[in-house]
Amino acid sequence: IQLTQSPSSLSASVGDRVAITCRASQGVSNSLAWYQHKPGEAPKLLIYSASTLQSGVPSRFSGSGSGTDFTLTIYSLQPEDFATYYCQQLNTYPITFGQGTRLEIK
Amino acid sequence: QVQLQESGPGLVRPSETLSLTCSVSTASVSSYSWTWIRQTPGRGLEWIGHVSYSGSIKYNPSLERRVTMSVDTSSNQVSLSLSSVTAADAAVYFCARHYGNRILGYYFDLWGRGTPVAVSS
After folding, report:
1. Are the beta carbons of B113 and A41 separated by less than 8 Å?
2. By CA distance, what is B5's nearest residue in A?
3. What's the gap in Å between the CA of B106 and the closest CA on chain A?
4. CA distance B90 to chain A (A)
5. What burial class does residue B15 get, using C-beta atoms within 10 Å of its C-beta: 0-12 exposed, 13-18 middle, 19+ buried?
6. Which residues, 6 or more positions from A55, have their beta carbon under 8 angstroms from its beta carbon?
7. Cα(A97)–Cα(B46) distance, rounded to whole angstroms?
8. pLDDT tens, residue by residue, B54-107
9. How far apart are the C-alpha atoms of B98 and B110, rounded to whole Å?
10. A45 to chain B: which residues are within 8 Å by CB?
């Protein structure tokens, strides 16, 4: 299953609200997760089952969607949120990832 | 806090076998399922496969002929072996815990920082 994220890159300012979309080439039910990755660090799970916030993740992160279309929304961007974000589907083997969205400071 | 740390040779010659280990601290490897992922600039994140102590194994079909994963409870490590490597196997390799259930969903909740692997003669 191919996952297509948009945009591939995004410039935003602290305090902005941003949305990243992930479209699956076929339905994945709600078996979709979102990760944040900063260079040299371990990727961090943000959202699983499309909309469930992982324990310890700030509530400004929100996930929605089902089937083929999903969205990660970050409300009120903080300096530590500038990173690359990936979606992942776990509904069908092989597990696949989106190509990533790089979120940069404007 | 469960921590994962990948380790490996850093450099492998073409046609040889790449061997990596993932050391797990403060959790027993026999209690969970573990997965390997690699990252390259060209292909992004690629799932390699997962393994559990109970014997459940699943590999990515694109790598299945060359991949072996195992769990070692005596050292509390997870291992990855990839044979007949080529330049296309140069990547940063991550291990992660594959967690969840059919009710709540599945996800990779803990990751290591990754270990870079270059392929060159």
Report:
1. yes
2. A42
3. 7
4. 17
5. exposed
6. none
7. 7
8. 889 999 999 999 999 999 999 999 999 999 999 999 999 999 999 988 888 899
9. 8
10. 107-111
